[in-house]
Amino acid sequence: MHQPKRQPELVEGSLPVFVFPTELIFYADDQSTHKQVLTLYNPYEFALKFKVLCTTPNKYVVADAAGAVKPQCCVDIVVRHRDVRSCHYGVIDKFRLQVSEQSQRKALGRKEVVATLLPSAKEQQKEEEEKRIKEHLTETVFFEQSSQPENRTVPSGPSLLTVFLGVVCIAALMLPTLGDVESLVPLYLHLSVNQKLVAAYILGLITMAILRT
């Protein structure tokens, strides 16, 4: 005779808790947000009992802070903010939902939900819009910078001075050498061999400089 399989015993705190939303935001200038709903889901094959705890219970009213959830069902937990004052703006409070089997006392699962009171929904929307604009501008600037071609130095041609020196050296090499009697060029334009060697050396340097540019 086969004995029915026993469900494995759950360890304390190991059971996942499904609650929505996980964050409550109250706005001081919008009374419709002073009352919000937490929905607790039970996807399991056994019933759960739950309990809602809060770090600042004097600021909130929780309807049905304790109760039970049938298998594969859900319950709504109403949370009301009853202390809407400017000194509480931006303060983060926490709710803790503890669940356990109906026949047990130990908490099989826990889930925390944060709650915040903000001064104005319009101001919050404005801040979020400004944040989105800043992020968009940052992305645009980054895209423009990354899409710009790399700055490259355009190689420039030889300068006018270099060209002029080259022409002078060529002209010097074409002038007659001292001692050349048959030349029609005036004697003062006759260059010595050493002068022509200097002109040829300078012309070689200019040619190398032009080829490197």
From TrEMBL:
Q: Which InterPro entries match?
A: Ig-like_fold (IPR013783), MOSPD1/3 (IPR039283), MSP_dom (IPR000535), PapD-like_sf (IPR008962)
Coarsely, its chief localization is: endoplasmic reticulum
According to Swiss-Prot or TrEMBL, what is its membrane topology?
A: Multi-pass membrane protein
Keyword Transmembrane listed: yes
Which classification does the entry list for the species? Eukaryota, Metazoa, Chordata, Craniata, Vertebrata
> Which keywords does this Swiss-Prot/TrEMBL entry list?
Endoplasmic reticulum, Golgi apparatus, Membrane, Transmembrane, Transmembrane helix
Which compartments does it reside in? Endoplasmic reticulum membrane; Golgi apparatus membrane
Locate the transmembrane regions by residue number.
160-179, 191-211
Function, as annotated: Plays a role in differentiation and/or proliferation of mesenchymal stem cells. Proposed to be involved in epithelial-to-mesenchymal transition (EMT). However, another study suggests that it is not required for EMT or stem cell self-renewal and acts during later stages of differentiation.
The name this protein goes by in its record: Motile sperm domain-containing protein 1
UniProt GO cellular component terms: endoplasmic reticulum membrane; Golgi membrane
Domain spans labelled MSP: 16-143
The protein's matches in SUPFAM superfamilies, at most eight in alphabetical order, are given as: PapD-like
